[in-house]
Write a structure and sequence with these properties.
The strands form 2 sheets. This protein has a 7-stranded parallel sheet with strand order 4-3-2-1-5-6-7, sandwiched between helices. The chain has a 4-stranded mixed sheet with strand order 9-8-10-11, covered by helices on one side. It is of the alpha/beta class. It contains 16 helices and 11 strands. α5 (106-114) runs parallel beside α6 (124-141) and α9 (210-218) crosses α14. It has helices spanning 12-22, 39-49, 59-68, 81-89, 106-114, 124-141, 150-158, 197-200, 210-218, 220-233, 271-279, 293-296, 310-321, 325-341, 349-360, 369-387; strands at residues 2-7, 28-34, 53-56, 76-79, 95-98, 118-121, 144-147, 172-179, 240-244, 250-256, 261-265. Helices cover 46% and strands 15% of the residues. The mean pLDDT is 97. The protein has 3 domains: 2-147, NAD(P)-binding Rossmann-like Domain (Rossmann fold, 3-Layer(aba) Sandwich), CATH 3.40.50; 149-320, no CATH class; 322-388, RNA polymerase sigma factor, region 2, helix turn helix motif (Rna Polymerase Sigma Factor, Chain: A, Orthogonal Bundle), CATH 1.10.1740.10. Bound molecules: NADPH dihydro-nicotinamide-adenine-dinucleotide phosphate and magnesium ion.
Length: 388
């Protein structure tokens, strides 16, 4: 029996994780569930899955949750960032699904890595902003890091079993990261300024949280995934190629020096990578139906247009620049996306604000978490000043 903590259980990935866990009660129990403000939803989950601990964002939310959990007084209710780290690193917990969105998930995801847990990583922003520090924490503790992001999970499945962040050692030439292209793949460029938040979050293939949906529309999501692939698989920027594949059936590929290309295919449903990582190296049912290629008929591929998707180029630039660049990119993006969702800026401004923030902050090496958080803070301050 494995005892699981889900950080961000009320989100899109969190709910898909609970869906998979519910199919295998003999294999998994829930140690802790966490949410930020959706207290009612968390209470329902708690009554169904009976975790030992539930965590919310504030004291007020904790009070409301405790009231809703009167019939389950054995569930301990905690609140705040420290409590997230506590449930991510508790001795009673075996595996942690890191599914909080954005930099808010960094501390707890890192706490799981430092505590040597099996870390199921959905929260790509945590890895993008902390890079080497995160990889070092995993190495030092002996944690097992398994990717949930569908592309990285696909790549993981296509790599040799004994792969250890060194492409050349095992004949890996390139990682081919597929991208759907999002809702604006063919929208006339001169109409992009008129994009509304509702249009941006209407993804053609995946149902996801609001932030990652906007990231998919700008293709910053793919940019963050390029950086994520760099850290997970030790590949240089030049070995990570983005391929537009609108059907989202091939979730990514690995190209070998002998000319072989291995791909992982499946219906676009996050329960597949979640089930894969939960049970790894075994396989369990996920609830996802079998792929019928005869129904899909055609698979298409093309190169991304960097004029249409400037955020993708900004992410490659940040990866090549190294140091604090990815931390600044990520922070600037989070603030700009929120401003777009709040209708304070237009869609096209997202990339412009990130570029201007990256240009105006000097790069530095990031050798500890305090420096990292300072760079994150400076970037947020800079974008906010540019917006107002
Ligand atoms: P959602 O917005 O659907 O869910 C986010 C979760 O994080 C919610 O449980 C939310 O709680 C919680 N949360 C939000 N802010 C905070 C905070 N400040 N402190 C603590 N908890 C917080 O996001 P997704 O599930 O879509 O994405 C989660 C992560 O997974 C992201 O990093 C994303 O990039 C990654 N990912 C998602 C995929 C998808 O298909 N959705 C695919 C691949 C990666 P509350 O509900 O109370 O607000
Ligand atoms: Mg992805």
């Amino acid at each position: 029996m494995q005892n699981i903590t889900i950080l961000g259980s009320t989100g899109s990935i969190g709910m898909s994780t609970l869906d998979v866990l519910a199919r295998h009660p003999e294999r998994y129990s829930v140690y802790a569930l966490t949410a930020h403000s959706r207290v009612e939803q968390l209470a329902e989950q708690c009554l169904k899955f009976k975790p030992q601990v539930a965590v919310v964002g504030s004291a007020d939310a904790a009070l409301r949750l405790s009231r809703l959990l009167q019939e389950a007084p054995q569930i301990e209710v905690l609140h705040g960032a420290e409590a997230l780290c506590q449930v991510a690193s508790a001795p009673a917990c075996d595996a942690v699904m890191a599914a909080i969105v954005g930099a808010a998930g960094l501390a707890s995801t890192l706490a799981a890595a430092k505590a040597g847990k099996k870390v199921l990583l959905a929260n790509k922003e945590a890895l993008v902003m902390s890079g080497q520090l995160f990889i070092d924490a995993v190495k030092q503790s002996g944690a097992v890091l398994l990717p949930i992001d569908s592309e990285h999970n696909a790549i993981f499945q296509c790599l040799p079993h004994n792969y250890d962040r060194s492409p050349a050692a095992l004949g890996v030439e390139k990682i081919l990261l597929t991208a759907s292209g999002g809702p604006f793949l063919t929208r006339p460029l001169d109409t992009m300024d008129a994009v509304t938040p509702a249009q941006a979050i209407a993804h053609p293939k995946w149902v996801m949280g609001r932030k990652i949906s906007v990231d998919s529309a700008t293709m910053m999501n793919k940019g963050l995934e390029v950086i994520e692939a760099h850290w997970l698989f030790g590949a240089a920027a030049s070995q990570i190629e983005v391929v537009i594949h609108p059907q989202s059936v091939i979730h990514s590929m690995v190209s070998y020096i002998d000319g072989s290309v291995l791909a992982q295919l499946g219906n676009p449903d996050m329960r597949t990578p979640i089930a894969h990582a939960l049970a790894y190296p075994e396989r369990i049912a996920s609830g996802v139906g079998a792929l019928d290629l005869t129904v899909i008929g055609q698979l298409q591929f093309s190169r991304p247009d960097l004029q249409r998707f400037p955020c993708l180029k900004l992410a490659y630039d940040a990866l090549l620049a190294g140091g604090s660049a990815a931390t600044i990119l990520n922070a600037a993006n989070e603030v700009a996306v929120q401003a777009f969702l709040d209708e304070k800026i237009g869609f096209g401004m997202i990339a412009q604000l990130i570029a201007r923030t990256m240009d105006s902050l000097p790069l530095c090496a990031v050798t500890d978490i305090e420096m990292l958080l300072e760079q994150d803070r400076l970037a947020r301050q800079t974008v906010n000043a540019l917006i107002s």
